[in-house]
Specification:
45% helix; globular
Length: 561
Amino acid sequence: MDKKKIGILAACAAAVCIIVFGGIYLTRNIGKSDKVISEEKASSKLTKLVNNISPSTAEPVKSPVEYDAVEDEASELPDIETCDITAKATTQLYAEIYSSPEKAGTGTDGWLCEMADEFNRQDYSVNGQKISVQIRKVNSGQALDYIASGKAVPDGLSPSNMLWVDMLNSRGVKTETISESMVGNVAGILLSEETNKKIMEKYGTVDLKAITEATEAGEFAMGYTNPFASSAGLNFLICTLERYDLKNPLSDTAVQGFQKFQKNVPFVALTTMQMRDAAEKGSLDGFILEYQSYINDAVLSKNYKFTPFGYRHDNPLVAVGEISQDKKEVLKKFAEYCATEEAVKRASDYGFNGMPDYVPEYENVSGDILIAAQKLYKTNKDTGRPVIGVFVTDVSGSMDGSPLRALQDSLINSMKYINSDNYIGLVSYSNDVTIELPIGKFDLNQQSLFKGAVENLYANGGTATFDGICVAMDMINKAMEQYPDAKPMLFVLSDGETNSGCSLNDIRDILSSLKIPVYTIGYNADLEALQNISAVNEAASIDASTDDVVYQLKNLFNASM
């Protein structure tokens, strides 16, 4: 027999083997899906790990919960110096401007900084005094909190859109518009090519109405950003409510419509980066982003279609409070400089001023309505599904002192941002793991136990981070049997790399199978391992110093809890 025939016979034999043994493999567990088997294996593996870890359970300790204390918003905010100055003043007479990051950063996000640096070199003057401007990069939502609380008030404010200015006015802060648009931008919904095509075929158009209807029907996975912090997220929230009731976005009709829509939203991202990571992994078919960011990203602009929505993001400039006339003149001169032909051209080169003909389909709403919409979101975002959440706290020796005090203060302060119908537990870890508080409904009794447990934490020993995560996952897994419709969440607060116990590789497949998002908050550390585990199920990883962790957790809980 020649070699060619032998080769053909060998190939046929191999094919038969593949078919036979492949058939045996595929039919070995008929009646069970791969997902169920995977979950069973994950739960079994988790149980073995937890048995080896052998966590202890702390004695319950209660502490009074103070409900009548006046909320001190300023105390929750970090020092303003945690927000970077990205263009520095060069003269004694200057105006400081808080600017949103997309124009106060670097590269194509550094347009306003470049304008400021060039303006400061021009020797402009007011009443015989040389002038300059200073740009501080502050997220729009955080800038509102600084100003409204009085903790840090700039001379000028340039958020992404006017919605934040309207909210400031409603909170009693006086503003004066210097420029309605420093640079043009538009918020939009990015849809994958396939999703865009499907919506067009079914609804005849691709706009906010069609997209929300398709989301309601569960036809694709839509994500958006935290409306307490993100300009695009706030814009999307109010426009979605208006889509259900244009005349009264706070009506029962609007709320019911929002609940139907929200039911099919996988998650609201804490940050734009978290949302983009989820999209890149295929978890989302659509998400929101500003046009300037979209057009500057070759991958996004190639693979997604941009559909504008809502109110324009024209980056106004307003004077804040009772500033001097000289400082107002500084702001006016700077606004004029940013409107020159060369400045506008550079802005366009950086991706701004796109879609200049886009006109909002909705009329402006008051700041009072916007504030009420945020509160409505907080109470309706989970559509009747409680959260089962466990906090995993690092109490290793390196947390002793200010890191542990910051952790305790942040958790106790943030209790008021956790809805009382959620189910909450607490775990601590060093070399060993302790269940400080078993999962329970976060009513007044559980809040008292939670506060007592947090106050009694002390630091000592090594860092078995993933042992703590295992125990928390096991607690959540068991609680989900009782409340199968609940949303599981895990929060890890740590300052150091793991140096004992399980590793990330030991638990990655368990976490992926059980689909429990792990939000990590790192204290003054580069916790790459925690960032990696957050990425498994599209959760956020926050790099928080001891100075700003209270505010970071407030934002996280407003978005998630």
